[in-house]
Amino acid sequence: MKKEYGYILIAYIIMQLSSLIGYPLVNKIGTSVFDVNENRMESLTTVIWIVFSFTAALLYVLFILRKTEKHTKIDKAEPLSVGASILWAIGGVFLAFIAQSVAINIEAMLGIKMGSKNTETIINIIEAAPIVIFVSSVVGPILEEIVFRKIIFGSLYERFSFFPSALISSLIFGIAHFEPIHIILYTAMGFTFAFLYIRTKRIIVPIVAHVTMNTIVVVAQSVFKDDIERMMNEADKIQGFIGGFFT
Question: Annotated catalytic, 177?
């Protein structure tokens, strides 16, 4: 792996861990400068640091990439035409939702409840500060595709075939979301985006598919939150009934 890619990985890890220092620091400054109660300041701190850390990390990563030569064989390969890549980006959204649906069904058969704590937390933050939707739907997916597909998957693909490269990078992708119970779901998504990247040789294709999917999910869960919760409760009841029937 080239040193520039190493710098990007380090920046991403620092961003993920930055809240350990950033939250207390912003909270302390905020409470001393602004006349805001503690609970309100904690909410503002979360929003401020999410927006700042993700945006700063993306700007740094794009700056490094701008000066970085093509390193991996995927980078050096001839990409699909722009027209074909656009079609794959559009089709990739449907592939991502299909992969998600299959993974959710597999998890259901294993007794894993539907719903993601990460998504639930993000939705709650977005309801308090809509600006966070830009981070969760655009900035986050761009960073993840650069880190997990372009760098990690691309570097693994230098030595291994598609399947082990996609599997390892997708497992890392899942672990990085700190929801091990949904590792199947995240791995399925990782495979889908890795396939789009290797098929088109353009990182922008999985980026577009990932951004579009996240945007649809976040908007849908924000607008139809009550309906989705009702459907999930009904699905849990059915799952419990089936599980009890076959016990």
Answer: yes
